[in-house]
Amino acid sequence: MAAYNSAGEPSAAWTGRLAPDDWASEGGTVTVRTLREMRGLFRRNFEEMQQADLSEDTVIYRVWRLRGDEEQHIPEISVTSIEPGEVGGELFMTHGHRHPSNRGETYMCLRGNGGILVRDRSHIRWYPMREGDVVQLPAAWAHRSVNTGYRPFVFSGHYSAPFTVSYDEILNAGMGAAVMHVAGDLYEVRTNEGALLAHGRR
Length: 202
Ligand code: F6R
Ligand code: MN
Known about the structure:
Blueprint: E1 17-19, E2 24-26, E3 29-34, H1 46-51, E4 59-66, E5 76-82, E6 86-87, E7 90-91, E8 105-111, E9 113-120, E10 123-130, E11 134-137, E12 142-147, E13 153-159, H2 168-173, E14 177-181, E15 186-191, E16 196-201
Antiparallel strand pairs: 1-2, 3-4, 4-5, 5-13, 6-7, 8-11, 8-13, 9-10, 9-12, 14-15, 15-16
The structure holds fructose -6-phosphate and manganese (II) ion.
């Protein structure tokens, strides 16, 4: 984005608008992730899920992104809405990724209840989030967001442009832990080895 047009006048700002209730947007792009695109990420085997009553077309989350600009240091903004639900007890979540660049990220919860699972080498942590909570993530931390509630979990993410991510690492190695609905209103965050990292109410 050039700050000035060819006549030397300030150019127009980029603007966008998102209505998260009906997911109507102006500007930016919207990406929809269904269960089909989450193959291999939930603990439960994909073939078992197909036999259960979850359709491959079930929407797990939507992401709206408004571009930023590297040269002008305008950060990019995204808003993600994860639907409530579970797959074999594992609560609906994003794919998860790490940023290969040295750029961290700020997350802010806009509505609903959820959290961020982060991993840096063998260190795994869980940050629960409700409306108004902010979590700032260093660049090295892989992160995945999870809806622990009964309504959509909506949060914004703010990071330097351009958006560069590595998804393969999570697809191959996972996050090292899962967020499971256990009984009633309770959820637990357990490592792949079975250690209890955190628990909470949905
Ligand atoms: C950007 C960021 C979020 C996620 C979004 C979807 O760095 O962390 O905007 O991209 O919540 O998650 P993924 O990208 O894992 O599908
Ligand atoms: Mn990110």
